[in-house]
Design a protein that fits this description.
The protein is α+β, with helices and mostly antiparallel strands. The chain has helices at 17-28, 53-67; strands spanning 3-10, 41-46, 73-80. It is built from two helices and three strands; from the N terminus they run βαβαβ.
Length: 98
Amino acid sequence: MPRVVVDVMPKPEILDPQGKAVLGALPRLGFSGVTDVRQGKRFELEVTGEVTDAVLEDVRRMAGTLLSNPVIESFTVHVDDAVEDQPAVTGGPGGAAS
């Protein structure tokens, strides 16, 4: 089944306290080299049928109406081209891939 992904992020001019908290925690956990963190959200929508321009436009309207707050957030919409037969690589305990 096709999947359309909506990534929502705070606009650059909006303060991101969650991102700042993560940024502050990284060095305490032994990680270095990160200069900024912005925390957002990701929505994965499985849709029926083919992903057409009309479907993408509907998803953009969903994102602008329900999935994001357009006053303080921006969003991008794209089709997830990952092959369903391939397992996803995810982080496990300690950040190692599992």
